[in-house]
Amino acid sequence: MQIPDVKSATVAECWASYRRDVMPAAAGAVQIHECQLAFYAGATAMLAGMLAAVGSATVDEEVGISWILAREQELCAFGARIEASGNEKPPTSR
């Protein structure tokens, strides 16, 4: 899956990329809808976590950066497990 330019990509553009590159072309309407709900829920959860970790005046910048790096490691580990299982390769953003 090719992630759109992270500096300007909208969630909708990332979803479109996921839909095009990851989901089966023959996916039915229910599968597409359920995957879109999960995709947006995940994006919302990550945004809420980032805002809490970095957007608060009471959170030290180092703590916020640590939170972001920990999520990166978590997602990379998940992608590695998916790749090792023979499923879709994990997305790359770098």
* Average pLDDT figure: 85
Fraction of residues in helices?
A: 55-70%
Strand content: under 5%
Give me the number of helical elements: 3
Q: What's the structural domain tally? A: 1
Terminal-residue CA separation: 12 Å
How many whole angstroms does the radius of gyration measure?
15 Å
Largest sheet: none
What series of H and E elements makes up the topology?
A: HHH
Instruction: Briefly note the structural class of the backbone.
Output: mainly alpha
The tally of beta strands, per DSSP, is: 0
Q: Which overall shape is indicated by the principal axes computed on the Cα atoms?
A: globular
Ranges where pLDDT stays below 50 over 5 or more residues in a row are none
Summarize the structure.
Helices cover 65% and strands 0% of the residues. It is an all-alpha fold.
Account of the protein in words:
By secondary structure, the chain is mainly alpha-helical. The chain has one domain (11-84). It has three helices and no strands.
What tags apply to this protein structure?
mainly alpha; 94 residues
Describe the secondary structure blueprint for this structure:
Layout (H helix, E strand, L loop, with lengths): L10 H11 L7 H26 L6 H24 L10
Helix pairs in contact: 2-3
